Amino acid sequence: MEDAISLHQQALELHPAGHPKRSFSLLSLANCIQSRYESQTLQNDPYVALPQISTTILSAPSPLIDNLVWDTLHSIPTRLVQTNTGILLTQDEMVAQFQASTQYHNLVTLLENINDWHSIINHIQENIVTYFKYAILSHRWGHNEPLLQDILLNGSVYDMPPTDGLIKLQKFCDTAAHHGYSWAWSDTCCIDKTNSVELHKAIGSMFLWYQQAALTIVYLADIPSSSLTFSGSAWFTRGWTLQELLAPHTILFYTQEWSLYMGSTAQNHKKDSSILNELAQAAGIPPQHLRGFNAGMDNARSKLQWAVGRHTTVLEDIAYSLFGIFNLHLPVLYGEGEEKAIGRLLQEILSQSHDTSILQW
């Protein structure tokens, strides 16, 4: 079955978006994915409710809908975990799932009676965006984090031997599902870190992915639910978590036991005034920038100062983790060293902002 899926994925590479045979290839891939699901021994897992893809709802391909789907997927991660099955899917596999869904069938049926093209396209776009909404994880890496190859080898995050990292991933997916999201993304398992091209693309897209997420779930592994403050969390000292704080529109903080911080029932902790004020103090960032952050060159020196005192495991990442904050797309050159990486960053900021005060950050 894996060979069949691989062959269909190769066929998709020969049929890019807009190709007349792409829809047929995606539907064929959907059948293969369903067969793979049925071969998995997940039915007895309490976390999993397998989707049933019935051939009776495989609608006639719609180039209009397909093009709108790919427009939506352009700005979201290339892989996501399906929260009810725990299976990691590529975008092609996600589209195949969508084409085999009742939602797709209903949209195709809707096209049969078109009175107002403008409203119908808006309606289709809204349905597509809703279908592909995803939650994203922000956390500090720990021990035994499951990587992409581990997930692919085992088939589902719910069907793997438990480790600290795996339990965290399961809890994250379960929490995302609880909030109504079918898709979830974690930097541990949704990037092929053995592929340098994919890794570099992910680094360049990371800010956008957090910005586009319907919900960012922050897991503070070192803050127990009984704690009265989260300001001492190591999460506030890491380089990558700065953009993971600034980029999202909606964010929720979870404690060590996976309970909401301070028991807050707010739908967005950036709109909970008490949590927002504590967050601003802990991060050293004014509340207005947390509520509505604008990536780019304005307040360049302040943005650099927000990164002071933060650290990254890989030295160059202290510069690369700021690319999105300044809306920069620079080459990722691991091995160049921290000094050169920061030098390239400052040079580009200076050339675009003409703000010489950044040299004193």
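[next item in queue]
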Amino acid sequence: MSSTTVPAPLRSPGLANGRRKNPPKLPLSAFSPPNTGTSDTFPLPPTPSAVVPVGVVDSHLRVSASPASIDQYKENVGQLTLEKITAVVLTIDSQRSNDIPSLLQGLRSYIDLPILSVSVPFELDQAPPSEPLSCLSGTNPPTTLSTAFTRVTPEAVASLTWALDHSAVVDIDVQSDVMGSTAISGPTLYDFFEDLLTKATAPPAGADAAEKKRTPIVLSNVFPPPLDFHQPIVKVMKQPDYLQYQSRVSSLSLFENLYLKITPPVRETPGSESTVHLKEWKGRLKLYIGPVLEAFGFERMIFGTSSSPAGEAFDLPVSWYDLVRESFAELGVEQDAIDNVFMNNAKRVYGRPL
């Protein structure tokens, strides 16, 4: 029996004249406040409590058909955060497409929040359907497609291309170690993933380059990547894995319609530390906000509250909303940037028609 082989990836779009885009380099001072001897003229960042988004769109709320999942969600985010939520994007992990209409009807009966969009799954490692899914048209709220990337398969390019043709947005939960992958020889898993994006977004054969697909692709479980807290931040910044993360984020940003969701990370090592102090969480989160901000800007970050099902979630010291908001505030961001991350970008991406 002949075996199916996956072709080597094309040259990365992150290469220009044989060189990758230089990753941003951040000073250590970006991850700690100035000392008490700092002059009064030093431009201190805004007080975290003073930088608050005018509203919040939770763009990554994983739900099931059970009301208990929504009750747990409301308990986790807290009443103060709940009052700021203007809309949600629901992510359905596993549901047959012909069951989606009945599921939507059931969700409306116990979710008392505006639903901006509902993301339903498709299989990236299977051949695409011969016809568009019936749930992708005529639904209220609108329905989009989501999938998980776990491995390289020959069907992935055709499947993602089909999804980009039939959905207003495509979400990809990166459930493999794409950002940290290495290879002794040959392409890494990241190279294959970048090649998948390159081929799926390319214009049809014989078409002008201007016809390149413009459908937004939104990645989760990348920003931040799976974490552990064994090493202090100063050492992490010098590790090859972190420098590689910077470089790969920089390359991914060259896909102009690619967005990153900032969602709660999963544990890199199952059963690792169960309790991490708030200060350590903020420092680690800012370590990854920095390079993503440099590469993607505030226009292509989208806030969400659900972790990837690919790993074990952390017990956070505060709500994810408070942790992200305060981390951005301590980096000295402006009000319009906070509003983009927490609300405006999600409205623009998930509120657009096909």
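[queue empty]
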